[in-house]
Design a protein that fits this description.
This protein is of the alpha+beta class. The protein is built from 2 helices and 13 strands; from the N terminus they run H-E-E-E-E-E-E-E-E-E-E-E-E-E-H. Bound molecules: calcium ion (2 copies).
C-alpha cells in the first residue's frame, strides 16, 4: 500500500510541476512552402502565436502579410520562408491566442528586398509595466541578422514599417510557461509535500 501511495504522489507532483518547465520555440515560417511571395490577409498562426497584419493611419497599401518563400530572390532565408507586411507603413502584431505572456528572446530581421538596405523599424511591446518602444535598425548586408531582446512578461509586440522602409522577419524565438501562476506554485508545493510524506512512510519500516 505505501508503494502505491508513493507512485500516485510522484505522478501528481510530475503533473503539477509541468507548468514550471519553460518551453522555447523558434517560429521559422518554413511551413509556408509557396513558390513566390504570397499575400496573406488572415493572421499567420504558429502554435498559439498569431501574427496579424495591422494597418496604421499612414499605411499606403493593402493590409496583408507577405510570405517570402524559397524561390523568391528577396528571401533572406534561402530554402525557407520569412514573413513581411505588404504595405509601407503596415505592422505585424504578435500575441498568443489566449493573451498569455511570454519571453521574446530574439528575432531575425532583414530589409524587405534583402538587398542590404538600412531600415529603421518601429518596435513596440507591452508587458505588465505598460507599453514600450524602441527602434530596430537593419544592417547594410544581405541576409538575416539576429536581434537579441530577452524581454520577459511580454503580452504582445508589434513591428511597424516606417514610410518607405520595409522589412522581413524570421526565427522568432519565444519562451512560454517559465513563470508559474501563484495557484500553480500552491499545487506544486502541495504535490512535493505529498511526495515527502509518502517517502517518509516508505523509509520508516526499513529503519525500524
Ligand atoms: Ca524561415
Ligand atoms: Ca540584412
Amino acid at each position: 500500500m505505501p508503494s502505491i501511495r508513493l507512485a500516485l504522489a510522484s505522478a501528481a507532483a510530475a503533473v503539477v510541476a509541468l507548468p514550471a518547465a519553460a518551453a522555447t520555440t523558434t517560429i521559422t515560417f518554413d511551413d509556408l512552402t509557396l513558390d513566390y511571395a504570397m499575400v496573406y490577409y488572415q493572421p499567420y498562426a504558429s502554435g498559439d502565436f498569431l501574427f496579424t497584419p495591422v494597418q496604421y493611419p499612414f499605411d499606403s497599401g493593402m493590409n496583408a502579410l507577405v510570405v517570402y518563400s524559397a524561390n523568391d530572390p528577396g528571401n533572406a532565408d534561402p530554402g525557407g520562408a520569412t514573413l513581411a507586411h505588404l504595405a509601407s507603413g503596415g505592422a505585424i502584431d504578435v500575441r498568443r491566442v489566449n493573451g498569455g505572456s511570454f519571453t521574446l528572446k530574439s528575432l531575425d530581421i532583414s530589409d524587405y528586398f534583402d538587398a542590404g538596405y538600412v531600415e529603421f523599424v518601429d518596435f513596440r511591446w507591452t508587458d505588465a509595466f505598460g507599453d514600450h518602444q524602441a527602434n530596430i535598425i537593419t544592417d547594410f548586408r544581405p541576409g538575416l541578422q539576429t536581434i537579441e531582446l530577452g524581454l520577459e512578461g511580454v503580452t504582445r509586440f508589434q513591428l511597424i514599417q516606417q514610410l518607405g522602409l520595409k522589412f522581413q522577419i524570421d526565427n522568432v524565438v519565444v519562451e512560454t510557461g517559465g513563470v508559474p501562476e501563484p495557484s500553480t506554485w500552491a499545487m506544486m508545493i502541495l504535490g512535493f509535500g505529498v511526495t515527502g510524506v509518502a517517502l517518509r512512510r516508505r523509509v520508516a519500516p526499513a529503519g525500524a
